[in-house]
Amino acid sequence: MRLCAVLFDMDGTLLDTAPDFVAVIQAMREARGLPRVPEHQVRDVVSGGARAMVVNSFEVDPLSDEFEALRLEFLDRYQDHCAVESRLYDGMERVLAEIERARLIWGVVTNKPVRFAEPIMQRLGLAQRSALLVCPDHVTRSKPDPEPMILACRQLALDPASVLFVGDDLRDIESGRAAGTRTAAVRYGYIHPQDNPNSWGADVVIDQPLDLLDVLDRALCSC
Q1: Given the residues 11, 168, 172, 211, the one annotated as active site
Q2: Active-site hit among 9, 16, 20, 168
Q3: 56: domain range?
């Protein structure tokens, strides 16, 4: 079936959003008179969300009241700092331009809440180009459940088999496969040191955004 659309996970796939997460963590530690943490300490657990970043940065019991206060502060601070340093990964602008030149559709399916995802897309000038943005707010079950991908395909009026979903986490690949899309795993995203994208069962694994151009060429030439 002809490839009609490319959908991206947001954090660690389409965008390098870690610098803003790191800045928020460092500001919280500075406010408490604590030293800065190594950047990789935050980057390594970005895929685990606010919970993982707070636990890893403050060594706090996730069942404690202290943890919940830290988590809420993290989210409040991030609301004001969610698109300051976040950027497209190197090469991704060219990928998007080639997707648009080929008259394919592209969009974003993320586990990032809409209150953060929408401002980021707007401030980076991507909202006007993206065909859709699917967040946990729009579904009852987030990735790895297939519901977000099924919703995206339904909104685009596309057969899932004509869609390629690109992600940097096992949950992305599981969601895409369960929904019936083609899948591409990336090695450049927020991959935990002990994780291995080659074991996720994706149709293809890439090292950098520009590798997607070859994937797209092969997909289009085989149609």
Answers
A1: 11
A2: 9
A3: 18-80
The length of the chain in residues reads 223
- Residue 128 sits in a domain whose CATH number is 3.40.50.1000
- Which helix (H) or strand (E) is 50 found in, with range? helix 49-58
pLDDT digits (tens, 9 = 90+) for 54-89: 999 998 999 999 999 999 999 999 999 999 999 999
- The 3-state DSSP composition of the chain as helix, strand, coil percent (nearest 5) reads 50, 15, 40
Domain total for the chain? 2
Burial of 177 (0-12, 13-18, 19+ CB in 10 A): buried
| Angle at which helices 18-31 and 49-58 cross, to 10° | 40
Q: Could you identify the residue written with the tokens 């609301």?
A: 79
**C-alpha triplet 208, 203, 206: angle, nearest 5°:** 10
Q: At 31, which helix (H) or strand (E)?
A: helix 18-31
pTM of the model: 0.95
How many helices (H) and strands (E) would you count in the chain? 9, 8
Rounded CA gap, 143 and 146, in Å?
A: 6
Residue 9 a catalytic site member:
yes
The closest of 13, 24, 47 to 165, measured between CA atoms, is: 13
Same-domain status, 70 and 92: no
Q: Which residues sit opposite 185 in a β-bridge?
A: 167, 205
